[in-house]
């Protein structure tokens, strides 16, 4: 049997690091990765020194450098694109990481527990937070209706789960966005997609035979 340390290294990105059950999630995700002959790498890995440092600018910038270093050493990535802090959009730091991995032409897949369209997420956010609905505008030069939020900003990325650059970069890297109500189910589906990208369509059969 191959040494798990020699499996392709997969960066596990997302807002997971901010969740109370982050360590339990990463433990479960890494177990799923091993089943698929992948080596999951948490943003916490190799950052034990950070816990002893005081909060502040230098510590925050150190975390950014360490995360970038982890991504440089990884072969692929799995990203959670769940809405962040009750808003419509995902964690901005994770969006940066998706762009960074895309620039290195590394395979990626994404997952979410929120299968609503981006348009619906924005609409729900503004109605709940500001009690203001979206409005329609039909420009004379456009063939389609535009939706505007309370600040007259266009609600974009029709038909997608998140910003088109986020989902587009993941899809251009060969991946897809898995959707499931349970985050572990969503992660597993995305991990299977990523393993297929790395190993080919025979990944699941190979894993079942050990």
End-to-end CA span: 7 Å
How much β-strand is present in the residues?
A: 5-15%
Give the low-pLDDT segments. 202-207
Q: Which CATH C-level class of the largest domain is it?
A: Alpha Beta
CATH topology of the largest domain: Rossmann fold
Compute the average pLDDT.
91
Radius of gyration: 19 Å
Number of strands: 7
Gross CATH architecture of the largest domain: 3-Layer(aba) Sandwich
Protein name: Nucleoside 2-deoxyribosyltransferase
Keywords: Transferase
InterPro entries: 2'-dNMP_N-hydrolase (IPR051239), Nucleoside_deoxyribTrfase (IPR007710)
Pfam family, one: Nuc_deoxyrib_tr
Q: What topology does this entry show?
A:
Layout: E1 9-13, H1 22-35, E2 39-41, H2 57-73, E3 76-80, H3 92-103, E4 108-112, H4 118-129, E5 135-137, E6 146-148, H5 164-172, E7 177-179, H6 183-199, H7 203-208
Parallel strand pairs: 1-2, 1-3, 3-4, 4-7
Antiparallel strand pairs: 5-6
Report on this structure.
This protein has 210 residues and is an alpha/beta fold. It has 2 domains: 160 residues, 3-Layer(aba) Sandwich (Rossmann fold); 45 residues, no CATH class. It is built from 7 helices and 7 strands; from the N terminus they run βαβαβαβαββαβαα. The strands form 2 sheets. A 5-stranded parallel sheet has the order 2-1-3-4-7, sandwiched between helices. Helix 1 runs parallel beside helix 6 and helix 3 packs parallel to helix 5. The protein starts with 8 loop residues before the first strand and ends with a helix. About 3% of the residues have low confidence.
């Amino acid at each position: 049997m191959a040494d798990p340390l020699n499996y392709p290294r997969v960066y596990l990105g997302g807002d997971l690091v901010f969740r109370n059950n982050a360590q339990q999630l990463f433990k479960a995700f890494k177990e799923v990765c091993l089943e698929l002959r992948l080596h999951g790498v948490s943003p916490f890995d190799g950052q034990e020194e950070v816990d002893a440092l005081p909060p502040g600018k230098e510590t925050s910038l150190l975390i950014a450098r360490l995360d970038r270093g982890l991504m440089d050493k990884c072969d692929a990535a799995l990203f959670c694109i769940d809405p962040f802090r009750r808003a419509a959009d995902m964690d901005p730091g994770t969006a940066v990481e998706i762009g960074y991995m895309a620039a290195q032409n590394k395979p990626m897949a994404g997952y979410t527990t929120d299968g609503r369209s981006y348009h619906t997420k924005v609409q729900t956010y503004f109605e709940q937070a500001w009690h203001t609905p979206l409005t329609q505008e039909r420009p004379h030069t456009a063939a389609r209706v535009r939706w505007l939020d309370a600040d007259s900003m266009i609600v974009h990325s029709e038909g997608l789960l998140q910003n088109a650059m986020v989902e587009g970069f993941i899809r251009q890297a060969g991946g897809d966005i898995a959707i499931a109500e349970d985050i572990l189910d969503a992660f597993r589906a995305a991990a299977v997609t990523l393993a297929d990208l790395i190993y080919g369509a025979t990944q699941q059969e190979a894993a079942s035979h050990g």
